[in-house]
């Protein structure tokens, strides 16, 4: 076998570095006997923002905890951990030596936005205003709160904030601290694309990265690309070991990451390339085809909250993915409920809908599953999910790592694990229509692509239809044939536009967000332009907000 993938296995055949010794010399931490091992660390540098990308369970959060001084690195010696002098000596001659010297002497004042934000809800008692005033050490809280669009929530209790609001509050609370090392562990979960850009801009503007260390872990590649100057890739075997790569410039680093090959270490990190569909193809629906889904102009209102949704007419065909784009709180989930006949419109109607609809709900909770264990839920969705010779096992169950947690009970799963199970169950069910409400939340890039590929395959090969609500624009670009853009005043009113071509829909959304996106000359992947850059101004002048030719 390849052990920890260091011998010449087919997977790593390309590696010519004599990895065993090289790698062992960089062992930074091991949680315990037969437990996860972390090799190397991201080396934060002042003057730039360092992005971190990589698989779930590969040691990104562990790296942050070590750099922030929350976890002392044991260099693999978990039974008698070394002292700081030994640690500093270990990193002699590397960029990390200076960092650890400072860390050991208490000169690093680290502030961390943790990956999991739910714990903060239980601990933080008070209103947004009270807690911001208490956290503020830089006299910046009003400005930061304003730019994150949190000002209308000042009197709201923090434990009553929605996921997205809590995320932004925590980002603000970190930035107003007087630190010299800021760490953001997945700051975009729960946020829509507008808020992701807002968070990226605020981190850039207020972290003072010219003087401070700033590190951001993120799975939304377009946002990570926009936010960071350099990146490191964390690769390895999730849950077993993780290796932090050398730093790369963000553009080339992400391209290498997608290709699956890191030239500076001569390392193949994956069997195949992660390919995003880069053409904005105009797929044609066969003329004369009969839609599987068709709705009138509709009006809907929730009596209790008064939220009002207006919907333009539309349809969807066999073999098609309709992407749903738009900010939080403007009725995307409500629209799926109308199509699913869980909600009744005041005006208009759903004219045609399928009998069998499989839904992946947005809300992740053990309660959405009918069976007790992962295996029982997969089996009840489709026995093929447990058959290692089936494509769905190969493409979905194995790629998402569900095969390693078959015996687990759903009430013991983490958010990310619940998401994987929910997506697999929804896609494995036999149906004519698939509704996937935010399927990529918590998933890493590889998992997002596996899910996206599976959706395309079901739609193309089995002739099904899918509607997918998704904030990750790269994923949305990959899966959708046409898109519906939702706009409006969050929580008050929403308007759903008719389905249009990918380019037209992205253009509409991006114009609304005042963001332009160009094509990377090398990989063809979409990249967000820096506001005010030449490309940004030119594209705006031409009204081409998304991927001009
Ligand atoms: P990532 O942030 O890249 O998803 P983490 O750094 O959170 O990964 O975790 C890497 C691995 O280390 C995981 O397999 C996780 O189960 C394991 N791990 C994390 N924390 C601990 C701990 N306190 N004790 C033992 N194992 C841990
Ligand atoms: P999105 O999916 O675009 O984030 P939703 O369709 O979930 O938006 O919700 C739109 C708005 O409708 C929310 O801001 C919320 O205020 C309101 N809303 C959602 N569900 C209910 C409900 N069951 N009762 C009353 N109001 C609701
Ligand atoms: Mg993590
Ligand atoms: Mg929703």
Automatic annotation (TrEMBL):
SUPFAM superfamilies: 4Fe-4S ferredoxins, P-loop containing nucleoside triphosphate hydrolases. Residues 17-260, 293-513 form the ABC transporter domain. SMART domains: AAA. Coiled coil: none annotated. Residues 1-19 form the 4Fe-4S ferredoxin-type domain. It comes from the Archaea. GO terms for molecular function: ATP binding; ATP hydrolysis activity; oxidoreductase activity. Residues 521-549 are annotated as: Disordered. InterPro entries: 4Fe4S_Fe-S-bd, 4Fe4S_Fe_S_CS, AAA+_ATPase, ABC_transporter-like_ATP-bd, ABC_transporter-like_CS, P-loop_NTPase, RLI1, RNaseL-inhib-like_metal-bd_dom. Keywords: ATP-binding, Nucleotide-binding. Pfam families: ABC_tran, Fer4, Fer4_RLI. This is ABC transporter related protein.
């Amino acid at each position: 076998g390849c052990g920890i993938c260091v011998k010449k296995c087919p997977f790593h055949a390309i590696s010519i570095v004599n990895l065993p010794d090289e790698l062992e010399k960089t062992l930074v931490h091991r949680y315990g006997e037969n437990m996860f091992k972390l090799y190397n660390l991201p080396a934060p540098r002042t003057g730039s923002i360092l992005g971190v990308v990589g698989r779930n369970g590969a040691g990104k959060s562990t790296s942050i905890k070590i750099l922030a001084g929350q976890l002392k690195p044991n260099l693999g010696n978990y039974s008698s951990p070394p002292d700081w002098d030994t640690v500093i000596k270990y990193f002699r001659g590397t960029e990390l030596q200076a960092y650890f010297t400072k860390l050991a002497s208490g000169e690093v004042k680290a502030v961390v936005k943790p990956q999991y934000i739910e714990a903060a809800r239980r601990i933080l008692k008070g209103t947004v205003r009270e807690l911001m005033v208490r956290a503020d050490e830089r006299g910046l809280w009003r400005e930061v709160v304003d730019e994150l669009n949190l000002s209308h929530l000042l009197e709201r209790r923090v434990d009553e904030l929605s996921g997205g609001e809590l995320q932004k509050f925590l980002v603000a609370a970190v930035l107003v601290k007087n630190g010299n090392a800021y760490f953001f562990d997945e700051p975009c979960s729960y946020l829509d694309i507008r808020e992701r850009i807002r968070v990226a801009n605020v981190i850039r503007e207020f972290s003072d990265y010219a003087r401070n260390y700033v590190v951001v872990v993120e799975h939304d590649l377009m946002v990570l690309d926009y936010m960071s100057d350099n990146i490191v890739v964390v690769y390895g075997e999730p849950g077993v070991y993780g290796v932090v790569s050398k730093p790369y410039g963000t553009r080339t680093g992400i391209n290498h990451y997608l290709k699956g090959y890191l030239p500076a270490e001569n390392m193949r990190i994956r069997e195949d390339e992660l390919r995003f569909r880069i053409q904005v193809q105009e797929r044609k629906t066969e003329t004369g085809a009969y839609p599987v889904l068709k709705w009138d102009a509709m009006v809907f209102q929730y009596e209790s909250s008064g939220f009002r949704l207006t919907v333009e007419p539309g349809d969807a065909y066999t073999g098609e993915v309709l992407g749903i784009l738009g900010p939080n709180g403007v009725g995307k989930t409500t629209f799926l409920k109308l199509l699913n006949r869980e909600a009744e419109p005041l005006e208009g109607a759903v004219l045609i809908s399928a009998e069998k609809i499989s839904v992946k709900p947005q809300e992740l909770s053990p309660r959405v599953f009918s069976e007790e264990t992962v295996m029982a839920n997969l089996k009840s969705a489709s026995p093929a999910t447990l058959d290692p010779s089936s494509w769905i096992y190969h493409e979905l169950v194995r790629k998402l790592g569900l095969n390693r947690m078959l015996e687990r009970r759903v009430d013991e799963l983490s958010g990310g694990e619940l998401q994987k199970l929910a997506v697999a169950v929804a896609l494995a069910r036999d149906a004519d229509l698939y509704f996937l409400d935010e399927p990529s939340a918590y998933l890493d890039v590889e998992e997002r692509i596996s899910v996206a590929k599976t959706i395309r395959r079901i739609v193309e090969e089995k002739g099904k239809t899918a509607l997918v609500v998704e904030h990750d624009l790269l994923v949305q670009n990959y899966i959708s044939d046409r898109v519906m853009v939702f706009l409006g005043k969050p929580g008050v009113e929403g308007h759903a536009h008719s389905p249009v071509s990918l380019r037209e829909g992205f253009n509409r959304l991006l114009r609304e967000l005042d963001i332009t996106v160009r094509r990377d000359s090398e990989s063809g992947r979409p990249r967000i332009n820096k506001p005010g850059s030449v490309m940004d101004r030119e594209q705006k002048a031409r009204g081409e907000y998304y991927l001009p030719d």
